[in-house]
Amino acid sequence: MEQYMQQELTDKIIEQAAILYDADPTTITKIGGFENFVYEYHKNKQDYILRFVHSGHRTYDLVLAEIEFIDYLDHHDARVSTVVHSIHDKIAEKITINSEHYFTVSVFEKARGDLVKNEDLTAEFYQMFGREVGKLHRLTKTFNPKHKRPQWYEENFSDIANKYLQYDSEIIDLYQQVEATIKSLPKSIDNYGLIHTDLHFGNMFYDGEKLTFFDFDDSAYKHFLSDIAIIIFYHFRGLDNRHEKYNEKVRFILHNVMKGYQLENMLDLEFFKHLNEFLLLRSVILYVVMTAAGFDQHENPRYREVHAYRREASINNWVAVDLDYVLEGL
Question: 70: domain CATH number?
Fold first, then answer.
């Protein structure tokens, strides 16, 4: 999130949200958030997630569209967090900051389980993971929303890059090239639709048997392959194609994910020849978002190191895989 948004979430705003959802403000604690502000509270033996979205990040209507999608998935047996209604029976509430800005507030039942651990990452886990993603993609084909989420390229990352990286034409040009390439790919109901777009392990909990997905803040109309590329990309943060085991590990993940995925949805395997474009797109976008969030000026040197690495990984395309090897036998 941009830094000014952090300054506008005051105790008064949090207290207003507590009233709207009949929550005890003394039980509300901050638990994180990168693009939004995420809190937790306890009520009637149940844990809940309280989320604040700044209007500078998403409009009220866009948040409504996100939550409408989650609610639809939940009612069709997808593994997502259940939406909680406010005291006004709304799935989202608007809290005014000033004449220009506001927060959109929403609440979800906290997902069962905990973050995925390294020891969980077996072939069976990835097959289960793939099947749940396949279910999301199957269900999106029949979703008819009242409120509309954006096309992925309407996020205007190019504008954000120009604002924060006007000195770095190499990154700006790279983003525009990759964006243009992916925009030109064919689209149909069988390969393109409303998807999560951010399926890294920070956006799901695992209870030992099943995953539950949350944080659909970045959901957009995009190629289904993007969700699969994200699974691969975030498994290898800090590990890239300079490592001798990189392609072997990508192959293991992809083959098991698709073994489960195809039990729920079919995706033309010919489309996987574009996997590297989607991996590179995420790498560049992540660098742009990190820059907007001030990683390059963070007091913690680790943040600055990660930021610098992400630029090098993007410019040098360290995320690319050996497609012949990785896709063989898929």
Answer: 3.30.200.20
